[in-house]
Amino acid sequence: METTRHFVATVYVVNDGATALHRHDKLDMWLPPGGHIDRDETPHGAARREVREELGMDVELVAPQDGVDSPTAESIPKPQHFLLEDINTCGGEVGHQHIDFVFYGQVESRDITPGPGEQPAADWEWLTPGDLRDRADELEADVVEVGQRAIEAVESV
Description:
Layout: E1 4-15, E2 18-24, E3 29-31, E4 34-36, H1 43-55, E5 60-61, E6 69-70, E7 73-74, E8 81-90, E9 93-106, E10 124-127, H2 129-134, H3 141-155
Parallel strand pairs: 1-9
Antiparallel strand pairs: 1-2, 1-4, 2-3, 2-10, 5-9, 6-7, 8-9
């Protein structure tokens, strides 16, 4: 079986010491906002778009930039993590993977107003580092770890 890979962007959105997660319908797991990168998008552009669509918020990415610029190249915000994620397996073989550009971001409020066709605001929860630890049995290990790192990084800015 050939493995199909898609590029995606994810943002651990932080406000007042907590990050927003929701139970993803298709994957049946708790995840932050994110989704596929469109052909005409940069990873950081897709990250901002996904937060706008899913949460109805403008996010300020907490992302380093190299500052390298030339007539033919420019630095863009770096993700905090690159993850290769198995999305489905069949007979022990991976059929689909995501190459995930994971960003941290900060928003002004916790007022979630999803765009049309997105999961309702009631499906989202704001989780503190303690909440992430307490719910480790129902959350993926990487979501707990990266969520805690994102909160710490954003709160220290």
